[in-house]
Amino acid sequence: MGIISRGFKRPDRPNGDVKLPPGQYRTSDFPVLSAGPTPRIAREDWRFEITSEAGASRSWNWQEFRKLPTDDVTVDLHCVTKWSQFGMRWRGVSLDTLLADVETAADFAFVRSYGGYTTNLPLDDLRDGKAWIAFSYDGDDLHPSHGGPARLLVPHLYLWKSAKWVRGIDLRDDDEPGFWEQLGYHNYGDPWREQRYWGD
């Protein structure tokens, strides 16, 4: 099954683009890459849940989620397929807000998406203003092809860690690899260290 949308092209990397992580090239479009078909989740059916390592859970439906404080963030994103785009404008709810009332001593997060996709991160990478559940891109509702109605946004890591169509996060004491991590992608995914695959 293809994971790159039709029409995706690789422009040349411009010389002297010092903001690019190693091995990346700059693009001005937003390529669509997915590990499978695009789920279509109606907002009235959408639910997001955080479950602690002790089994306690906190969940929000769409209306509850949209009543939470939101942030407007402008970030650079870097995909493991080597494209980068600068200055992308998002709106979302900070994970700091969502985790505020969750009692946990967990070290890891296991992210689950509608459609079955999963990924894993250290919990510290979701805190302190580093991550959001984003529902708007470039002033519009987030399109399903880019993860709408809501996706995880963790801009300091390669984009596969920013799970599309997010539906929940399990807080864990142990680190369990997600979909791409089980298939050989790096367990952490720092673009500035070129952590694309296991062994990088």
From TrEMBL:
<protein>
    <submittedName>
        <fullName>Sulfite oxidase-like oxidoreductase</fullName>
    </submittedName>
</protein>
<dbReference type="InterPro" id="IPR000572">
    <property type="entry name" value="OxRdtase_Mopterin-bd_dom"/>
</dbReference>
<feature type="region of interest" description="Disordered">
    <location>
        <begin position="11"/>
        <end position="31"/>
    </location>
</feature>
<dbReference type="InterPro" id="IPR036374">
    <property type="entry name" value="OxRdtase_Mopterin-bd_sf"/>
</dbReference>
<dbReference type="Pfam" id="PF00174">
    <property type="entry name" value="Oxidored_molyb"/>
</dbReference>
<feature type="domain" description="Oxidoreductase molybdopterin-binding">
    <location>
        <begin position="36"/>
        <end position="180"/>
    </location>
</feature>
